[in-house]
Each structure stands twice: as structure tokens, then as C-alpha cells.
TrEMBL record:
Metabolic or biological pathway, per its Swiss-Prot or TrEMBL entry: Secondary metabolite metabolism; methylglyoxal degradation; (R)-lactate from methylglyoxal: step 2/2
Catalysis: reaction(s): an S-(2-hydroxyacyl)glutathione + H2O = a 2-hydroxy carboxylate + glutathione + H(+)
Keyword terms of this UniProt record: Hydrolase, Metal-binding, Zinc
Entry keyword annotation includes S-adenosyl-L-methionine: no
UniProt-recorded name of the protein: Hydroxyacylglutathione hydrolase
Gene assigned in the entry: gloB
Binding site for Zn(2+) 1: H56, H58, H114, D133
Gene Ontology biological-process annotations: methylglyoxal catabolic process to D-lactate via S-lactoyl-glutathione
Amino acid sequence: MALIVDVFPARSDNYGYLLHDEATGRTAALDAPEAAAIRAALTRRGWTLTDIFITHHHIDHVEAIPELKAAFGARVVGPRGEADKIEGLDELVGEGDTVSLGETRFDILEAPGHTLGHIVYHDAAGKHLFSADALFSLGVGRMFEGTPGPMWEGVKRLRALPDDTLVYCGHEYTQSNAKFALSIDPDNAALQARAAEVEALRAEGKPTIPFRLGADKKANPFLRADAPELARYYGIDPSDVAAVFAAIRKGKDDF
């Protein structure tokens, strides 16, 4: 039996996800951006919500927790490092922990930077990574709380996962990410190909999510902060990768 992932839009540019364990019928919402969107997806699929898996404390990822928990009695799992910022958590997890959804197992990885306690959920057997705002297609989340060194280390941990991992992130930002990436890495053939694919998908009103991690490793400048050509672009010593990562992040912030 496998994990079924249902993808749907929420709020203005969020993605919502339902994770359904076929063997047991347990169904989790990955983050809780909007109750109405999650309820509609449950109805469309004929599933019942049993769990809510939270990645970080930002309001567009937690706002629906109270309503959904009250309606379904769902177990709410979330980051230990942000327990004081998120209401309604039943189970706290961090780096090295495992969360079960029926027969599906998720390894928890910490990915600080966007928020200090941000976690991601990795289904190694099914090759799914639910990265929320720690990793986007061709980008990463804005560094609201962290610092470049630890954020780069977290990004490297995600980069080390298998190339055939399917990544499900928190927002549809790929088109703008591609424009910035091309501005600093214009000769990257993999990036050029992905940017063209993204333009075609968006022109047809289709999502750019999920994406293969292996392809993103070749095209995403944040996953390539240790590439010499990006260090040269910013005039930074290639050995100071955290500084290169910081320069890329600032470049995107100001783009």
C-alpha cells in the first residue's frame, strides 16, 4: 500500500496537501493554511481527517488548526522548537524523530532559517518530501529568523536526499524564483530548461509542484551556493559558502 498525496490551492498562493495512507485510511493535512480548502479536498476525496502535520508557526500554515481539530478530533504534530508559538499541538517532534501515519513513516529533518524551528517531513519509502517554506522549486524561504550558516547546513541536508525524491512545497513561487535564478546564473542549461517548463505550466494554469529534487539540485541557485560560478558572480571567496548563500538570499530579497 502507498501514500496518496492530494494537492490543492489554498489562500492566495499556498498549497494544501492531504496525505492518505492507503493501508489504514488515515489522512493527514500537511499544515493547516485554510479550513475551507482542506474541508473541500476531504469531501472531494471522501476521506476523513485524522492528523495534522505542522512545519512551522507562520499564520498561513497554522490558522486552520483550531477549527479542524475541533471538527475532526485530529492529532496535531508539530515542531518542538516552536511549541510556544503554535496552539493546539499534541505531539512535539524534531531532528531524528519519526512520525507515523498508518503504515507510512515520516522522518523529521530540521531546516532552520525561514523560522528557527522549521521542520520538514520525509517519506523515504515513498520518496516524498514535504518541505513547506524551507525549500521551494528554484528557491528557499525568506530568512526571517535564522542566519546564513545554519540555514545553508539545513539546505544541504535536504540536498543530500535522493534525486528521485518528489518535493511538495508551501507556495507557488516558481515563476518568480526562475526569473531571479536566471539573473544570476544565466548560462545554466538545466535552469533554462526548468524555466521554460515553468512558463509553459503556468500559461496553462497548472501547478509547478511537485518537482524532482534531482532536477532542482542542478537549477536552484540556493542548492548550488557552493558552485564556483555563483561565488564568482558575487565576488566572494568560494570557500565561504555561507557568505555566498547569504548573498543569493539578499539578492532574491532585493530582486
